[in-house]
Fold this sequence. Notes:
D-amino Acid Aminotransferase, Chain A, domain 1, two-stranded antiparallel sheet, TTL/TTLL_fam
Amino acid sequence: RAHPMLAFFHEGYIRLAMEPYSEENTEDRFAHLASSRVQREHADYTRKVKRALMTIDELVAELSRVVGEPTDPVEEWIKPQLKAAMRHVLKSGQMRLVKANGQFCILGVNAVIDDDLNVYITRLSRNPSLHMHQQNVDQIMSAMICEATEIALQANTRESGGRFCAPSCLEHFEFLLDESTHDDGSAAPAMGVVSCSS
């Protein structure tokens, strides 16, 4: 919902570039862009695509292996930065969003994570690719679409008064921003009384 802004965060999945990143080689699109459209143009796409998509749990395992200690840098460092950046982007672009009741949007967010785990948003898409042809990621996306639809329906019903769902509806999404309660997402929101279907 755009006015007042109501937004949620889903950690989604990871799409890696098809070639190793290099600051020196700025001409290699396969090292700098990870969109599915660009990836499909890679000569070795069929073989490399399975390694280019991963779940957040797979990313955590890989980062823990590289760092050499059990840790969850996604929860501790990456997600807080990404959520703060998303709040900023949403607030900055709010006036350009459609103000009609009952509308919602699933935004795709591309971000780069550097060696120090700093997050940089590089692109937002209002038409993200939702079918990956890889079972682990397809399952995440299917569940995300169902839950996003349920949240949108609940947030826009007359009974809800514009308040968002109780936590029972928020299985994989996290609260990001609710301007109707003047909550910028930095604290747990006050819940409205809204029944949610399972």
